[in-house]
Amino acid sequence: MIQPIYVYDQQILEQPCPDVPHNSPILTNLIIDLWDTMRNAQGCGLSAPQIGVSYSVFIIDSKSVFQSIGTAFRHKYYEPDDKGITETFINAKLLQTSSEIWTAKEGCLSLPSLVRDVSRPWKIKISYLNQNLEKQECEFTGLTARMILHELDHINGVLLLAHLLPFSQKMLYFKLKSIKNGKVKVTYPTMKKQKLVA
């Protein structure tokens, strides 16, 4: 079911999420809601706190991005043997990051209309449970790694803004105020009142 996406200045977006119990009765519906909501918003990643649920669950679809961009961008954002993923990440833990750092533009469904350059490691290693609650330990690179790190930030209560210099954050005051007050037009439903679900 499509859920409203929580936008800037919502308390739940600034709080670290606990791991979700494997036997949680809400897990199956939560995953369905994440996919429905992300696709409706034409996003490529979404975390549980962005739909008002404080659990360590997020989804990534870098495969659709790979399929939609040109060859030149594929070489820039993906390794030669990488065609992206469509995956659910439950209770993910970052194990390792590479020393190679690269910068690219990032946006966020919780910060509509805001796109900024962010520097992140090219390669990461993480452990997580997939949708079938099977333990995984995988390495990811390029844009897929960037998407995962972006969603891991959400799980840890960190927004894209935290990667900007203080001066840059101050320059965004009026844009953030517009997002907070619901004056930025989006094609998906948003949540403007605080509401915590655990």
Automatic annotation (TrEMBL):
Domain of life per record: Bacteria
A Pfam family reported for this protein in Swiss-Prot or TrEMBL: Pep_deformylase
SUPFAM superfamilies: Peptide deformylase
Gene: def
Binding of Fe cation, residues: C108, H150, H154
Database matches in HAMAP family: Pep_deformylase (MF_00163)
NCBIfam families the UniProt entry points to: PRK00150.1-3
UniProt keyword annotations, A-Z: Hydrolase, Iron, Metal-binding, Protein biosynthesis
Function summary: Removes the formyl group from the N-terminal Met of newly synthesized proteins. Requires at least a dipeptide for an efficient rate of reaction. N-terminal L-methionine is a prerequisite for activity but the enzyme has broad specificity at other positions.
Active-site residues, record numbering mapped to chain: E151
Class of enzymatic activity (EC top level): hydrolase
Family: Belongs to the polypeptide deformylase family.
EC nos: 3.5.1.88
Cofactor note: Binds 1 Fe(2+) ion.
Cofactor: Fe(2+)
Catalytic activity: N-terminal N-formyl-L-methionyl-[peptide] + H2O = N-terminal L-methionyl-[peptide] + formate
Protein's UniProt name: Peptide deformylase
